[in-house]
Input
Amino acid sequence: MPFLVTFVIENRNSLPMIKLVAFDLGGVFFDWNPRYLFCKLFQDSEEMEFFLKEVCHHEWNLQTDRGVSFKVALQEAKTRFPKYSEEIDAYFDRWIEMIRGCDGEMVRLLEEVVSKGHRTAALSNWSAETFPFVFNRYAFFENFEEIIVSGFEKVVKPEPEIYKLLIDRSGLKPSEILFLDDVHKNVEGAQKLGIDAFVFLNPQQCRMEFVKRGLLD
Output
């Protein structure tokens, strides 16, 4: 029995100590979905889905997350589909209507992590032009010591360069960082660099992951 106790203690001490928790933003704190806006602009749901699949689609939006200006992106889309010019302009002009609030439970969980003395950061794919729309509205951003937004950095998850920015700016080893994201490939991108990471599902599961790593009781 004494041998068993000693083994358990040594095992615990050998676990990497997490010194910083890095949070994704969209899908973790924010409920973002273009359909919240475009269901107001299209009477036909099939036409709306066509618009979001062929006109202002995921890859088109991702270029703005990478730093391409909306002026350029909107003009490119209108050149392809001039009949949707008004709807395309609305993608930026009414962008905030794609956000359906902020998850208060996740905000409280973030504040609890901070209250325990842990360092925190945000790492998000987000346009530099639309990020201020939320940054200036929500006070919880004050809890992050570092906020890395792809649109400002000109690089997106899951490209390794954006995780290297997090590692370099934190001054930590990858194994000392915990990252959570609701997109599998973004989590895998972090893990490839040695960062501890998990796929975010909901606040309850997130809390369990923090407890498992000794960040919360």
